[in-house]
Amino acid sequence: MTEGRPSAAGSAPLWERDAEIATVAQALDALCADQTSAGGLLVLRGEAGLGKTALLAETRRIAERRGCAVWSARGAETLRSVPFHVVRQLLQPALLSLLPEEAREYLGDWYDIAGPALGIADPQEGNADPQYVCDGLVAAVRRLARREWPLVLLLDDAHWADQETLRWLAAFAERLDDLSVLVVVARRPGEAGGDSARLLDAVAEAAGRSVTNLSALTPDATAGITRATLGRHADDAFCREVWAVTAGNPYDTVELLAKVQDSELQPVEAQAGELRALNRAARGGGLVDRLKGLGLEATRFAWAAAILGTGITVDMVARLATMDDELARHCADLLCTARILTKPDPAVGTEPIDDELEFVHPLIATAVYNSIPPGVCTAMHGVAAQIITQLGRGAAEAARHLLKVHPDDDEELVEQLREAAREHLAVGAPDAARRCLERALEEPPRPEVHAHVLYELGCATLLTNPAVTIDQLQSALGMRGLERDDRVDAVVRLSQALLHNDQLEEAVRTVEAEAARHEAGPVRMRLQAFQFMWEGIHGETVSPARSRRLAELASTCAGRDNAERALLILRGFDAMTHGESADVVAELCDRALVNGRLAPGLGWTDTEWGMELLMMLGSAYAYTDRLDRAESLFAEARRVYTSAGWRGGHLSLANAFLGLAYRRQGRLRDAESTLREGLVLAERVGRGLPLYWSSTCGLVDTLLARGRVEEAWSVAERYGFAPPYPSTIVLPDIRSVRGRLLLAVGRTGEGINELEAAEKTAASRGGHNPVLAPWSIDLAKALAGQDPARAAQLAADARRQAERFGTDTAIGEALRCAAALETGQRAVQLAARAVTYLEASPCQYEHAAARVEYGIAARSTAELNRALDLARACGAEGLVAQAREVLETGRGLH
């Protein structure tokens, strides 16, 4: 039993909670010891009524005695659909206490991103990326925490928190190591499902051993509470029956003992049989009967309070229950006396506003809400929505009530829900927008509006769930209503969603079928460009015939409009992948620009063409030794997406391709950090999608170049870098990188098989670029010992293709391969020629590798020292070690 046990039943939930209180005290000791101490996370898990809220209140008392700032918030069962509801409770009081300019100063660049979600700033134009908003909320709390140290965050009933809050909480919990904040989360087990359950599990995982499962009271503790409440004369048999009836639940124990006092029941064995009936009256159906006993008006008042759920004031309840102020106050007093409603505790959070009320316990709120007759409940939600709208609070705030209204062919309701969805998207809550639009479809919308609602629903999920986008856009296109431009936009968005969901063949068929519906002109050319685009990034089956058709169509284009510019880019990318002249590729790409810059309407955030086209443009430059232009394009993409708040797939791919440009330049450290950032973003969108492969493949390739083979293998294992591969093309070439990795870890047979599979793909596509897909060079080196004739043929083919392509990098890499297959003076000569070409190339890692190989072949100390400097500058640790070993050994060097 608790030492210094509570002297009143009001403290019942703290009986037998010594261990939990000690854990809290220890965490607060660590928090207050040093402003640089790591943060803490405690999770209190237990069934309803076991005292989680009481433990949070005790945490507040202890923390405030130690000088901590304490912010608190609570989830509510009827408010789960309100995005950012709980995190707003947590942060708004602190932010609203600041002047607007102070809040902007503290939040800095995150003000415009997190501010709208927190309700302290107007949203920017366009839809906010939910991941960027989540990052902004994390950053906001981090900055405020530094200002308010020592800070304690209390989150009660987290199982009922909205998904947006839980997404923030899971992200914040992962980043507490370098932030001195104590977070205490209380939740019931098993109440949440789907994404909410996954996010709560992530919070528990971050807490590790600091998850406490609360248990029921023992018979001894129950007896102590009973006697503290009713008097020491309560006999043993009566106390045992209290425990048996309540199963040791502290909340039930307190409520039952209050009933015993109200009924003036004597706490003796002879009266113990009355306890079960009294317990039934304290909760569930018994509580509802007790509520009805207070009269119709009090019941209606309680119903209205349950409908509101939050912001419960006498005035708001009176409006909703349609009663005058005097009657409303009388009902409020009755319900407070009956321990159904209560005034908020001024010690918890901010000072309550006049006439503010809350339910004594969430169990009571749930029981009251569930007791409302269905028809009355629906009608009251409808009235609540009208009141909120009349008060000018916006469609988004009214939406949670509109979602509860029965479908009734109401045109105005459909428009309200569409407006609410737009408001939700503007603050980064696509799930909330989806719920509104799905409900609008149930109304249903008028025939001429129906397809537009489906289209909006598909667009709402494009950044977060391509699979859902596909279903909604396909439905929208299957009915009348979308006119010419809207229909084409829907088709393009659908094809993009199919692409990002790894359904490339269907993406091609979708735009091909739509193009056939249009006569020759800009619209048809746009759709044809998308068809060529999706075919061009297919990883396996692009045919030579398709390349010929594209070349014929592009030959008529002078770059007069964006459709022509798109075709020029596609033709340049196709020529690059097949190893045609690099000068031709660069000339095609340059013609797609306007004065060396992207044309208006063809930018990174312009939705008409999408990002894929510009990724192809930058890639074509990257593999034709125009790395300055490639880096400029991809750096601009990252800057634009960051400024626009796009923290999902777009920014992930921007990082992946910027990492590719850095890797090609030989800036291996920059490449690695950028690719890792891209991979983190890709994981948020979902494993297995094409964008995920781009970051993973680029990172493995970069780690191999750095000589960190074991780490490259670990990354491959961790992120599933193995067959089956996505249907889209991945840069760098996925089979070449996988084959090189297998060779590096000594799995030679598997590596050769992988490279031979790449060879077959190249044959089906009608040729390849030996820099983009260097399988022939890697395969020749792998076969040199067991099949020298084939190795020599592969090396000769690589040289021929390199000379056809014509870049210094391609020719230098082919000469490196040829030198590796030779010995003696011939090897020295070929290695020297490779150095000459690669010295003129912008690819400094390849230049460093060629220097090392030439220095070893020529036994030149001077060349090896030059190679060592180059390798260090690149961050190529493997090359550094190789050159050092030869220099330190010194055998045969001159």
From TrEMBL:
Keyword ATP-binding annotated: yes
Record's keyword terms, sorted: ATP-binding, Coiled coil, Nucleotide-binding
Nucleotide-binding among keywords: yes
Coiled coil residues, start to end: 494-521
Highest rank taxon of the organism: Bacteria
InterPro entries: AAA_16 (IPR041664), P-loop_NTPase (IPR027417), TPR-like_helical_dom_sf (IPR011990)
Domain Orc1-like AAA ATPase: 15-184
Alphabetized Pfam families for the sequence: AAA_16
PANTHER family: TESTICULAR SOLUBLE ADENYLYL CYCLASE, TRANSCRIPTIONAL ACTIVATOR DOMAIN
Name of the protein: AAA family ATPase
